[in-house]
Amino acid sequence: MTIMSSMSIEARNLLQTTTQPNLPTIPTLPNPTSLPPLPSIPPTLPQGNFPPLPTIPSLPKLTMPPLPSFPTNIP
């Protein structure tokens, strides 16, 4: 029974040694540094939506003045 447990330990040691060679391959992931330039494109889209918004608020302002004129007619 004890022999089985000792063999499992040796197997684990072998696995650890095989994982070491895989580490050097990780550094290749950082290469995708060309992603940053992409975010610069989206900001240009929102700008096109801003202009139309200011034109809407100007309409409600015209309807506001008429409201105060009603209370003056009551007295």
The main sheet comes to: none
> What is the mean pLDDT?
52
Helix content: 55-70%
Rg: 35 Å
How many β-strand stretches? Answer: 0
Give the count of helical stretches: 4
Topology (SSEs and partners):
Elements: H1 2-19, H2 44-49, H3 52-63, H4 66-73
Protein name: Mucin-2-like
Region (Disordered): 19-75
Biased composition (Pro residues): 27-75
Task: Put the structure in a nutshell.
By secondary structure, the chain is mainly α.
Keywords:
Mucin-2-like, 75 residues, single chain
Question: What do you see in this structure?
Answer:
Residues 27-75 have a biased composition (Pro residues). By secondary structure, the chain is mainly α. The protein has a domain at 46-70. Helices cover 59% and strands 0% of the residues. It has four helices and no strands. It is elongated, with a radius of gyration of 35 Å.
